User: Fold Kynureninase from Kitasatospora misakiensis.
Amino acid sequence: MITREECAALDAADPLAAFREDFTLPPGVIYLDGNSLGALPVRTPERVRAVVEEEWGRELIRSWNDAGWFEQPYRLGRRIAPLVGAAPEELVVCDTTSVNLFKVLTAALRLRPGRSTVLGDGAAFPTDLYIAEGVTGMVPGARSLLVDPAEPDAHLDGEVAAVVLSHVDYRTGELLDMPGITARVQAAGALMIWDVCHSVGAVPVELTASGADFAVGCTYKYLNGGPGSPAFLYVAERHLAAGPLQPLSGWFGHARPFAFEPGYEPKAGIGRFLTSSPSLLGQAALEASLDVWERADRAAVRAKSLALTDLFISLVEDLDGIEVVTPREHDRRGSQVALRHADGYPVVQALIARGVIGDFRAPDLMRFGFTPLYLSHTEVWDAARHLAEVLESGEWKDERFSRRGEVT
Amino acid sequence: MITREECAALDAADPLAAFREDFTLPPGVIYLDGNSLGALPVRTPERVRAVVEEEWGRELIRSWNDAGWFEQPYRLGRRIAPLVGAAPEELVVCDTTSVNLFKVLTAALRLRPGRSTVLGDGAAFPTDLYIAEGVTGMVPGARSLLVDPAEPDAHLDGEVAAVVLSHVDYRTGELLDMPGITARVQAAGALMIWDVCHSVGAVPVELTASGADFAVGCTYKYLNGGPGSPAFLYVAERHLAAGPLQPLSGWFGHARPFAFEPGYEPKAGIGRFLTSSPSLLGQAALEASLDVWERADRAAVRAKSLALTDLFISLVEDLDGIEVVTPREHDRRGSQVALRHADGYPVVQALIARGVIGDFRAPDLMRFGFTPLYLSHTEVWDAARHLAEVLESGEWKDERFSRRGEVT
Assistant:
């Protein structure tokens, strides 16, 4: 078994170690929940302050032009594009993941007018399923069908307009084969929509190279954009010339917003997927975190992610009552480790009391996210040791850990 | 003509004068664009800082429960409710005005299944029209029809499912008769949706007493929530028991979000109109501004708004080339004054160069917003004098004022 000293040596040789200084983390905490809400970058408070006090407070309405507020959805989109393998003009930052999924799913149905089925992953984060229900509920004859994500092929008949899948499963951490699935879906005449919420910033994402038609994602997990930070959407360049594809046809996506014309005409390009004025405070925080991400080598991030998850798995796989749910194969693993334990809820609470923050997903999964920019091998070693101690001591049986609360 | 000294005396007797200290405004600026982007409250930067550095940075994921992030859309909704005459359980803060209009408009069509026409005001802020186009474009047989807001009655046939109107016209500042129009629309069997973006915080709004079915509004104008701050929506209590009314059926509106069930079932009550996790930074800023609003007497706000707009109109109505577009009758006036001038664009630019910030709306309207909490009679007098000087001197003809830019 690897020792703590050996982990310290790995940290000393870690090419990403210096990024730890770019994040603020409270003392005494090992934060393994960056897959749910990423940590605060050191530079974010100052950027948010400047937008509040200077751009808003001092320059007021003039900032729409002078501070580039109109351009912010595109500017941030161009900066996220390389993180998901998209062209700069294929990505825009706006709204939320759910709202953006509504837009692209409607667009997909419009691009496949003779087809009426949307396939989704029955085990996906449910908002994707609920939104698919919402969209198909508005389109006569359309239906939403839930399938096993590993086997969408059996359902790919001539009725399928689009398939929506999570690139990484939010519970198990399993990574899907984006290019392979995309190719099979498209070969069946359907369009492929990826939800990259749990992969952007965590694993390599190659939307354009995979041939993806659409994608949506959030920025508050591995991208450290802050609670409720704005989401993004990707539309393959080949779909950007089509007519009005999406029904959230707000003013901000109009070809000539300041002409205040009564009829809607979409902007050229990705701007037609915009709806409303951007949330400038949320976008300011995201801007600061992208400053950090632009300095990070993505291959190094992936290598360290795999090293940390390998390390954690090796340290906990033989613990009593623990089953490792996350795939062992590197090409099937995201950047989190899910462990099944019959008493997962109180075990996670006991870990949190020790300062090791992971989370729990019903009925029995403990989730631990590994964020390569601010987590060390030593911390992973310490977290595994805390878990071993919690299980061996039985301290999780303490009554204060038994109450069920909400954990996001 | 009233003198500047008389205005100073009015300021000395102004019961709202002390509120000026609650806002940060740059020196040398008379800000008459609070109808577009409200000024920064003094306490907002600290509240935003605390959410960023403490709730996010220090408490991390725990803030979802410990800082009440889950409850924030409802808590803010309950605080805005009295400002629009709604019951606390009828209002929620979320998304943007356009997205919320999409939700309530779809709900209205579902509540009137035999009807398929949506009436809108052809002169409304266009996002309302574009969204109506987006919704009706998804509902077979539905259509969006633009009418004169003063005369919707002629179009109220048995086909009309819903009418969407702005309480205050964003260009002219005209205030519509909310209870009267609502009653006539409902007498014809249709549902009434009000857009209160330009009236909340500016004029008395009585949604429940008027019998309104739905309403949407933004918080970045008179409510001072900051650029791109979250919007709100109102649903009359009688419509909250109906089935899944709105199609943006995201996870946050599910009856049991943490059960992660594959099928959507809406929350009881107004929560069913939620879609996604809230934007916490934007909501933090709004929270701070509502602290100010809760101390303001609404009758005093309305009285001062009318006094300021009366004053401005009396000072500018006889200027050369100026036509007052805003109604003179108090019960038909919002909290802005619109002046028509053939060269409105350069005149507004010349005023901005003097520190008097208003805005321009094509083809020839100059808009001036009067915010009773942070504007004095003296400032209004000074603004009117600047306008007189700009017109008399002809300085607006300077070439630097002629470039057309975007002004929101």
